[in-house]
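Review form for a predicted model. The reviewer records the input and the model, then writes brief findings.
Reviewer: anonymous (R2)
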Amino acid sequence: MGARDDSDEAYVVGLCARILGEPALTQHRFDWLLGDPGAGGRRARLPVDAYWPGHQLVVEYREPQHDRPVPHFDKPDRLTVSGVHRGEQRALYDARRETEIQVHGLRLVVVGPADLDADGRGRLRRDEESDLAALRKILARASDEDRVLDAFRTWLLTEGWTPVEPTDRWTDLEAVRGQERLICEAKGRTSEKGIDADVAYGQLLRRMTSQDARIRYALVVPSSSLKAVERVPRHVRDVLRIEVYEVSDDNEVRRLPG
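Model under review:
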């Protein structure tokens, strides 16, 4: 086992993978996330700690040296290609990651020792139960629609689906499995359940541009909106190839019969 495999970073990434239900691409490098030019003008690709393609999510675990001077890591007497010492370059590249990752449509979550169970030196005590609970909150989205969508995306991955770039950029989520394709619209908790359900059906109808029977459509809603969605009879949904998925308050996913 290498030093990185036993690091706090690897521990945090492993817990996140358990929560997300998808293996992480660790130390992943994007073509568009680049360092400063070195000798000959070459720019190295900067790694991110972990990337989950199915969730379009990047997680960075930032140890104490990211937030305060640490001479052992900073090497203040040695300049980098950025013209500053490693501590300043680290802050520069962290800021670049934060900007570029979001510009390219990905979600970035930054986790530090203070977010988890850590000692005074910033080393994690590795209380899995406590750390899992904290990370679930950190990874949770701000809106309920995001929660519903994330839970459904995780469920799709466990069912062998692969999220892909949507054909229509307004589609919430699109996934493929073999020759099958699923085009999804998601809604969160709302005080206008009926109106939101009608809007979601309309959004799906506008995306029905192909007669290919291998393409199906999914309406994904929280339990509180289920009755509103079921106002469209099952036989109508069957004709339109619309499947309804319920996401419970504890993020369990259930497909309605159809």
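Findings: Strands lie at 25-34, 45-52, 57-61, 107-111, 162-164, 173-177, 180-186, 215-222, 242-247, 253-255.
Further findings: The chain has two domains: 4-139, 144-255.
Recommendation: see findings above.
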